[in-house]
């Protein structure tokens, strides 16, 4: 398993070793000792899975306070552009984002620590799975509008299909005012 640091502290891209033969393939999708070696000392308490068709954008979502969630995300099938935005109060990379293509051929993953908004754009119909460090808590849910001009994320999707909720989140500037500087 190859674990790569990104330009944003505590965000990691993970590339498992895939063993293929005539029967199919095998890979380790999580290994606690390797994650801990890189400072990802996360206790996972919930696994989620979703299916989305190409052209859908989901996000940018987060949980606040004691319900904050770290996530380990990947696609089982399909391809997505995965994005996380640093919302950590006082972080030198506050308001910056990291993006990576998660692809079924690579089975690569992204580790998103607490204090980040997360979302993805579906490039090829995808089954998306993610581990969470905390259970979902509706009252602690928040978000940043997906097309925030300050972030200027190139989602690679023309006219995306969005939920009503994802069309109504505040922009980063408004979030910063409401949260008094971040999560």
Can you describe this structure?
- By secondary structure, the protein is mostly beta strands.
- The chain has one domain (43-179): Jelly Rolls (Sandwich), CATH 2.60.120.10.
- It contains two helices and eleven strands, in the order ββββαβββββββα.
- It has helices spanning 32-37, 172-179, and strands at 2-5, 12-15, 19-21, 24-26, 46-52, 57-63, 71-86, 97-103, 109-112, 116-132, 141-143.
- The strands form two sheets. Strands 1, 2, 5, 6, 7, 8, 9, 10 and 11 form a nine-stranded antiparallel beta sheet that branches.
- A hairpin with a 6-residue loop joins strand 1 and strand 2.
- Homodimer.
- InterPro entries: RmlC-like, RmlC-like_jellyroll, RmlC_Cupin_sf.
- Pathway: Carbohydrate biosynthesis; dTDP-L-rhamnose biosynthesis.
- Belongs to the dTDP-4-dehydrorhamnose 3,5-epimerase family.
Radius of gyration: 16 Å
Going by CATH, the architecture would be Sandwich
Fraction of helical residues: under 10%
Distance between the termini: 31 Å
Q: What kind of assembly state do the chains in view correspond to?
A: single chain
What is the CATH C-level name?
Answer: Mainly Beta
Biggest sheet layout = 9 strands, antiparallel
Number of strands: 11
The total tally of domains equals 1
Stretches where pLDDT is under 50 for at least 5 consecutive residues are none
**What is the element string, with H for helices and E for strands?**
EEEEHEEEEEEEH
Structural class category: mainly beta
Shape: globular
The CATH topology corresponds to Jelly Rolls
What's the CATH H-level homologous superfamily? Jelly Rolls
What share of the residues does DSSP label as strand, in percent? Answer: 35-45%
Q: Please work out how many helical segments DSSP would assign.
A: 2
The average pLDDT score comes to 97
